[in-house]
Every structure is written in C-alpha cells, then in structure tokens.
Specification:
The chain is α+β, with helices and mostly antiparallel strands and 292 residues long. The chain contains 8 helices and 15 strands. The structure holds N-oxalylglycine (OGA) and manganese (II) ion (MN). The site of N-oxalylglycine has 10 residues, from strand 5, strand 14 and strand 15.
Length: 292
C-alpha cells in the first residue's frame, strides 16, 4: 500500500498513513519514511498497533539504537528492552511516580531541547510511542530549526557560524529544579560539545543545533554564552516555528529528527493522571561532527 503524506504545518511536520507496522517494513517503505523525514523533520503515525518489541524492531530499521542510561541511579527499569527510554510518569510497579527527585528530573522535558545533545555521539531520530494518554494536556511541541536558522539576520548567522556549545544533561535538569547532580550522576553523563550551526546530511540544509542542555559557548565567558543560547532558543521557538502535537490514541507514534528540530513536553496533571510514553533513539550515523 502506498504511503499518504499530509503536511500539518507550513514548514515541517507531516502525518503519514498507509504503513502496516504489524510486520517488519519492506526496505522501500523504510526509504520512503527516511525521505519524508528529510523533507518534514517530524512524522506522525496514528494508531500504529506497535508493541515494545515491534517499536524496537522498527526503530532498528532506521539505524543503531542508544540504550537508556542508568544515570548512576539504582532505578528499576520498567521495560524488558534496554533500548526503551521512559518518558512517562509511572514507576516500575506501574503506579504514578511518588519520588520527588524523579518527578523533577522528568520536568526537564518541558524545556525546549533536542535529545542526546549532551552525548558526544548525538542522536538522529527519536521515536516516541504513546501507551497511555492523559485526558487533558500532555501534548508535545516541536520547533523547526531550519526555519529558525533561516529567519536569523545575516549578521547573527555569520557570528554564530563557527561557535561551539557545550551541552550538559545536568544543566537542563537544574534549570528545571533538579538538585545539584551527585558525583555518580556527573560521571554517568559528562558534558559534550557540538557546533551551533550544522548541515543536515540528508537535506543538506543548515539548522540551529541548540537545546536547554547547552550551558555555555566554548571560549566565551559563561554568562555571555548562556545569554546567546537563551536568545537563540527564544528566537527559534517563536509561534511561527512551532507545531503542537495532540496525542489521540494509544499506538500513536511520532518520529522526530533531533538534528533539525527541538521539542518539549507540555503540562498535564501529572500527579493525578497517567501518561505512559516510551521512546527509542537512533544514533546519528555520522559518528561525530567535526568542531571546526
Ligand atoms: C522525549 C521527550 C516529550 C513528551 O521523550 O524525549 O522529550 O511530550 N518527550 O513526552
Ligand atoms: Mn526529549
């Protein structure tokens, strides 16, 4: 069956229908999805019927998968697959999270970010699958980092062309109210550096590579660098660059390209309602981008 691609926003995001996720996808279908990702950066698939196993298996058809980190904590994993990241608000027993520290950690997802920019080997795709959706709120927002880059004044584009930002997971967590990281947490996730402006290998377009994880600019005073990062994030997430995805049904899947978008979770009554979202993350096939 042919894929149907329906754009959902003037510059990015499409909904794709006609993919049968029950069996492994044929190579030509995978290629069509990759081409759609190069064109739209975010693709939504409704009611896929994917399970944990088929979610991981389909993700593997797109590349090599990250394993969810233990972050130095003795947290009991909720899933049988080490490739599944937990983006929900449930604990290992399937109850609403009681632990205040874990709740604060999760609130970091409400800041504009791109996944795994705090790793030296950055991520290409994230695939987020809904298992349980709260009755209200809990949408996910996306921002187009090509359109954001293209909107910048030429002088600002050339100022930032060769800048390198340092990204640190614990920077965004502390912005969200998480306490100072422990020694074990620091060792589990040291910072990583990436250029602010990157060329996407698929589309060959330039995009901004920024996130709440970015703490400063290499070679610049810390406060000056953070002020620039904050300004760029504000410019890049103006309403014209943002699409808000409403999750409708369990099985809804969204794939985003972390190299040319940012995203954030939006609020819901997380101490009252269940939201079970599970994510796989595909490494950028380019091992690491040169810093200069
Ligand atoms: C993620 C994430 C946002 C959400 O899974 O990487 O940021 O809405 N999720 O759950
Ligand atoms: Mn994320």
């Amino acid at each position: 069956m042919a894929l149907t691609i329906r754009p959902l926003h003037p510059t990015f995001v499409a909904e794709i229908a006609g993919v049968d996720f029950v069996r492994p996808l044929e190579q030509h279908t995978v290629s069509e999805i990759v081409a759609a990702m190069d064109a739209y950066s975010v693709c939504v698939f409704r009611r896929t019927g994917l399970t944990d196993s088929s979610h991981v298996a389909f993700s593997r058809q797109l590349g090599v998968l990250e394993h969810a980190p233990s972050l130095g904590a003795k947290r009991i994993p909720r899933f049988d697959h080490p490739e599944l990241f937990d983006a929900g608000n449930l604990d290992a027993q399937g109850s609403l999270i009681q632990d205040g520290r874990r709740r604060l950690y999760n609130l970091g997802n409400a800041l504009w970010h791109t996944d795994s920019s705090f790793n030296e080997h950055r991520a290409a795709y994230s695939l987020l699958l809904a298992h349980e959706i709260p009755p209200a709120g809990g949408d996910t927002e996306f921002a187009d980092m090509y359109a954001a880059y293209e909107s910048l004044p030429a002088a600002l584009q050339s100022d930032i062309e060769d800048l390198v930002a340092e990204h640190w997971l614990w920077h965004s967590r502390m912005l969200a109210g998480y306490p100072e990281p422990t020694q074990a947490e620091r060792e589990a996730k040291p910072p990583a550096r990436h250029k602010l402006v990157q060329i996407h290998p698929g589309s060959r377009r330039k995009s901004l590579y920024i996130a709440a994880h970015a703490s400063h600019i290499v070679g610049r005073p810390a406060d000056e660098g953070l002020a620039l990062i904050t300004k760029l994030i504000e410019l890049a997430t103006r309403p014209q660059f943002v699409y808000r995805l409403k999750w409708q049904d369990p099985g809804d899947l969204v794939i985003w390209d972390n190299r040319c978008t940012m995203h954030r979770a939006t609020p819901f009554e997380d101490t009252v309602h269940r939201r079970d979202m599970r994510r796989t993350t595909v490494y950028d096939p380019v091992a690491s981008q040169p810093l200069s």
